């Protein structure tokens, strides 16, 4: 990773391209340029067959300069540092401050490339790239440019690795209430980026975080447990507790069954139960004297006489 400082004093972290990727990009560019040069030469030979030898030689030299020198310069200028080979390899030419290149940068790079790439078959460019700390060739040094990688493999971020199986459930009785959120965040960030750190630096960071976590919990780190494994196990235990707290509360919030009501005692808010003999019945003679047909036997119970449970007793 190379740190560049822009004109606004902003530090940029860029990955300089290494020699293998740059060599592959230059090779692809040369193949494309030679193919175009051959096609243009064949067209010129066919169209200028009537000219003398001196004119044909002048046209050949002009074609060589325009295609093999001017072509890459024009392509890098118009594409802001992305030629065909660099585009295929995921590279880009930028200025020393991280900005896009202009015509003067591409011109210096293209002119010096004639000497260090075309005339010496890339030997000078390879030696300069090996000597330079950021892999720059002579054209980059004189032009003030740098070839960087645009496509960087995406690392898995936000994923906390699980603890070793032999530590599962070992810290179930640990008191985590005194651990601040800042320390949890630091531990989580370390665990998500532990694969990107230098082993020695990662071990020292894990040791320091494990000491802080043990001081907050009041229990020392067990003997023989690596600091990184201890941090992963404690974070896993905290996540398990949060999951139980979040999903366990839903089952306990279900409605509890109603308390049983004693026989004969009305429940709260329910209508009182009317004893069987309390409902008066009409006398038999009153029905006969009216001359009306006797009413059909009904099994319905008045709304006021229904129990609060909604159960209708048989008539």
UniProtKB/TrEMBL annotation:
Subcellular location: Membrane
Transmembrane segments: 24-46, 58-78, 111-131
Region Disordered, annotated ranges: 243-315
GO cellular component: membrane
Domain RDD: start-end pairs: 17-144
Pfam families found in the cross-reference section: RDD
Keywords annotated in UniProt: Membrane, Transmembrane, Transmembrane helix
Membrane topology: Multi-pass membrane protein
Biased composition (Low complexity): 248-287
Chief place of localization: membrane
Record's protein name: RDD family protein
